Amino acid sequence: MRHIKRRYRRLTNYDLSSQNIVSDFETGMITAAETEFPQARMCGCFFHFCRSIWRRLQKEGLRNAFNRRLALRRCVRKIMAIAYLSLAVVRQNFQLFRQDATTQRLCHNCPGLRELLTYFQRNYLNGQFSPVIWNVYQRNMDNRTNNHVESFNKRWNAVVGRRHPNLWYFLKKLKTEERRGALSVAAVRRGDRPPVRKRKYRLLQERIDRLTNSYRNGQRTLNQYWDAMVYTVAQFN
């Protein structure tokens, strides 16, 4: 990453800096970013946060039960939705949720759920990925996920169109992408209107804003807000 910063400065005469860095949950990436950009806030991607829990669910053999049992789906999505709670109340409410009678009954009927809860507590509460990294309570949609990076990867693969292109073909496509990037930078510098966000994500952000404001204004209790966010999480998985 230090090499990238130097190359960027050499090519553009600008220092590469950022207030927020959104990444998936790779320890090496997070450590490198924190070292090279100490002023930036490190943010875990919410989509990858949910996928990590989903992968663990599958490892514990809960996939079929998840598809069959509504109560288990709500329970797992509530674990994911804890990222929308205020950072100050995350740990306490996870413990209350884990000790809740409904959760305990599900753990009895679906033994893998107990292991999933232990995994979450070990890795995302007390482990290397603390709540300050994955909590999205005060983040907007743009800083909640790194989907724009994933979209670029998908589009780039489509542009190249080959699994193992030769060097000259690859360079040709790279130059095309460079021109596209230059046009985008020029548009920003001219003050052109940014691309319109997809309707799906606009509506999702509006829903999150309404729920968050109703919680902050005292129109919803914390548990009502948390339960409502379960339906929002369903949009991500």
Secondary structure: elements and pairs:
Blueprint lengths: L1 H11 L7 E4 L3 H10 L4 E4 L1 H14 L3 H6 L1 H12 L8 H10 L1 H9 L2 H14 L5 H4 L12 H14 L6 H24 L8 H18 L5 H12 L4
Helix pairs in contact: 5-13, 12-13
What does this entry look like structurally?
The chain has three domains: 2-44, no CATH class; 46-139 and 198-233, no CATH class; 147-190. 67% of the residues lie in helices and 3% in strands. It is built from 13 helices and two strands; from the N terminus they run αβαβααααααααααα. α5 (70-81) packs across α13 and α12 (199-216) packs antiparallel against α13 (222-233). The two termini are 31 Å apart. The model has no long low-confidence stretch (mean pLDDT 85). Residues 14-51 form the MULE transposase domain. This is MULE transposase domain-containing protein. It comes from Mytilus galloprovincialis.
H/E topology pattern: HEHEHHHHHHHHHHH
Pairing-aware structural class of the strands and helices? mainly alpha
Instruction: Give the strand tally.
Output: 2
* Helix content, binned percent: 55-70%
Runs with pLDDT <50, length 5+? none
Side by side, the strands of the main sheet go: 1-2
Biggest pleated-sheet summary: 2 strands, parallel
Distance between the termini: 31 Å
User: Globular, elongated, flat, extended or rod-shaped: what is the shape?
Assistant: globular
What is the beta-strand fraction? under 5%
How many whole angstroms does the radius of gyration measure?
Answer: 21 Å
For the record, the count of structural domains works out to: 3
Number of helices: 13
Mean pLDDT: 85
